[in-house]
Design brief:
With 152 residues, the protein is an all-alpha fold. It is 64% helix and 0% strand. The termini are far apart.
Length: 152
């Protein structure tokens, strides 16, 4: 299931595994939203206090309003995980975009969004290090001398 090149790149392997765990948690969270709407489990969002009162009110009264957004991020994470495990570039980009968007929107869900923000930062850093790990900052050929344009 996991591409051999991804197994060799420990940074991308670690990012892919964490993204997979994150995807599974998002899928469970999406199922919980349905169960809350169907009154199978109680809506405990009134226990949680969010920084933004509008988000607090939406989660308490209409949890299904934010569900399409959550499902969109869930699908992005699942597809990203599949792409990352198969060593496909679109998996990297979908994952990067979903992580950056999550970091932006997690501010609305403070203080609980701080954990999500931190998790996304860690995964994004691992993805970037894994992707750019062998790319030099300045690409010069071995044995080629600097002609003086960029010398200090």
């Amino acid at each position: 299931m996991i591409n051999l090149e991804i197994r060799k790149n420990k940074w991308l392997l670690c990012a892919s595994i964490i993204m997979m765990i994150y995807s599974i948690l998002e899928v469970v969270d999406s199922i919980v939203i349905f169960l809350i709407v169907l009154n199978v489990i109680p809506n405990l969002s009134f226990v949680l206090k969010f920084y933004d009162p509008t988000i607090q009110l939406l989660l308490e009264t209409q949890p299904l309003i934010l569900a399409p957004i959550f499902w969109g991020f869930t699908l992005m994470r699942v597809f990203s995980t599949i792409g990352l495990f198969r060593n496909l570039l679109w998996g990297f980009w979908i994952g990067s975009i979903s992580l950056i968007l999550t970091m932006i929107f997690s501010v609305l869900f403070l203080p609980f969004g701080a954990f999500e923000f931190l998790t996304c930062c860690i995964i994004l850093i691992l993805l970037l290090i894994g992707y750019f790990s062998i790319t030099p900052i300045i690409n010069t050929k071995v044995g080629e001398l600097d002609k003086g344009e960029n010398s200090i």
